[in-house]
Amino acid sequence: MSSLVDCPHCGAAQGAPLFDAADPLSADRFEIRRCTRCALVHVSPRPTPERLAQYYPDGYFGKRHPLLKNFFMNLRVGALPATPGRVLDIGCGRADFLMACRRRGWRVAGVEQDGAPIMELRRELGLEVVSTTELATLPDASFDAVTMWHVFEHMFDPHEMLREIVRLLRPGGTAVIEVPNFGSWQARIDPQYWFHLDVPRHLLHFERPTLEAMLDSEGLRPVRWSTFSAEYDAFGILQSFLNRLCTTPNYLFQVLIGRRGKGTAGDALVTALTTLPLAALATILAVVAPLFGEGGVLRVVAVKPLQATGGGQVSP
Known about the structure:
Layout lengths: L1 E2 L12 E7 L6 E6 L6 E3 L2 E2 L1 H5 L12 H12 L8 E5 L5 H8 L3 E6 L4 H9 L2 E4 L11 E7 L8 H11 E12 L4 H5 L14 E2 L2 H10 L3 E6 L6 H13 L5 H6 L8 H24 L8 E7 L3 E2 L5 E2 L1
Parallel strand pairs: 6-7, 6-9, 7-8, 9-10
Antiparallel strand pairs: 1-5, 2-3, 3-4, 4-11, 10-13, 12-13, 14-15
């Protein structure tokens, strides 16, 4: 079941329709709306939590080659403060980022859904990983850094999550949040074919002003922004181009993660003939776009200021 929802940021009713797009896995279609008050873009009508769970198949995230995985995770660690402390990764997946942090001297903990593979492996790996339902049991002010890598866009209640992050961070602690950039060139070229749209799993679609307003409303102060991602930019552009040419959404991505789905012979031919030239163009755009703040992701490093004020806010 799906229903129209108020804006997840400001609570304004419904919002203005932008376009509708198909889920690349189920082919079900979902409407994308922009709030007329705060401009946040979100899915509405939105599936219930129980219904949404059905759109996450087993192996949804696939696996990466170990060399690529380690390279990208080490790049992520570079976003953390220089002095290692205690870090919590919300939506830790297979714990690749946590393992990279631990190799750099960080004391690590993670949060993941009940039933995720890491919940069976955490003892073997010697990791502290709690379920999302146990997040509230973690002690106040117990982390120097909290991270969310391509998780925040999945949130039903983003403000509740931000309040938890503020609660868990020590004064002066760092939050690192990375999400797809709905304001990017690659998103604006043909948004309904954008690789990172991924409806209905991505419930929220952020641009810098909307993400900044949400952080500010919960007392997190952004100190550094980036829209460059070696991990996602070039491939996101490439797959978005291919989505316009192929009948099967995300065909190349499905092949690369070992889940071919229902791709046609035509998809295979188009992909074989166009991937190399389109990859060259995608690489150029991935390098140039961030120079103008138009890269395919938004990464923000924000701090919890040292002193609290009334109303749950914090001040510099």
